[in-house]
Amino acid sequence: MELRTADVVIVGGGPGGLSAALVLGRSCRSVVLIDSGHPRNEVTYESHGFLTRDGIKPFELRELAQEQMKKYDNVSIVNDLVKNVENKKGSFTTTTQNGTVIVSRKMIFATGLKEHLPSISGLTQTYGKSVFSCPYCDAWEHRDQPLAVIGNEKNLIHYIRLIFNWSQDLIVATNGPAVLTKHERTELDHHGVRLVETEIKELTSTDGELEEIAFADGESLKRKAAFLVNTGAAQATMLPEKLGIRLNEKGAFETKEHGRTNIEGLYIIGDAAKRFTGLIGAASEGYEAGVTMNHEFVEEDWLNKV
User: Fold this and answer.
1) Exposure winner among 158, 201, 247, 303, fewest CB in 10 A?
2) CA separation for the pair 276, 135 (Å, rounded)
């Protein structure tokens, strides 16, 4: 068993965790960032909306950040999985799957969410390649193409309106009776959006590129891409709950400003706290949390020497 100490442990090596690590590292704090190497967006070919890095491959973004971090010898990036965290006597004890134990003054969870895709044949082959969840990330590349909205949630009409912004050649496949009011159905008719409530049999594709949506009644509709209303995204880890942080009604961990929580010294940022932040939003939250946390360190260290 390896025993280490640090000012802060960061769990999660996406843009949020890496940004926080950079700020804290540059603030002369000892940082251990732990990441499993399997982010939510690992199935994605390109990431968009990140200023100066639009279209970058997700792993390339991580590699660039990790390479730049190497000049900070007070920042360690560990490829491992956090198995347990305990909060005792004002410090956090983190145990990893490989047996490393790290005692830290403070802690940041930037662990994000994990998908639990609906059971539709052909979806796993197309998700991240031609079937997506975030239009701000992927809709521009498929603008004006034949698109589909797949799903059936209470916010369905709002998601349809959103996707319609990028293409008016749109169908809605609810895979069963649609949760739509009579007025909302009239809206779809008025905008020329076809609603298909028949059960989806299969998404047919070649090399992950969507070609057709086949339905149980034998009908098939040609589509170039599709957007899922709900990917079943849930917390990647429930360790913050073990520490005493509750989930709100949206399935996000409850936080205060700057990522603070009701546990002193514990921060949660990014999708784990907001459900959706985007890459640049997560990076911004990491920066903000890093600055706020360092101010806490400064005040604590100053007062301890009085």
Assistant:
1) 303
2) 12
Burial class for 124, CB neighbours closer than 10 Å (0-12, 13-18, 19+): middle
- In the chain, the N- to C-terminal Cα span, in Å, equals 37
CA atoms within 13 A on the CB side of 174: 19
pLDDT digit string, tens, across residues 175-216:
999 999 999 999 999 999 999 999 999 999 999 999 999 999
Q: What angle do CA 45, 167, 183 make, to 5 degrees?
A: 125
Sole residue written with tokens 């079937």: 131
The Cα 32–Cα 200 span in angstroms is 46
107 token code pair: 């802690």
Q: For the segment 41-51, what is each residue's pLDDT rounded down to a tens digit?
A: 666 778 888 88
**All domains of the chain, ordered by start, with CATH?**
2-114+233-304 (3.50.50.60), 123-228 (3.50.50.60)
Q: Cα(259)–Cα(273) distance, rounded to whole angstroms?
A: 8
Question: Hey, how many other C-beta atoms are within 10 angstroms of the C-beta on 120?
Answer: 20
CA 292/CA 257 separation, integer angstroms: 10
Measured CA to CA, the distance from residue 256 to residue 25 in angstroms comes to 23
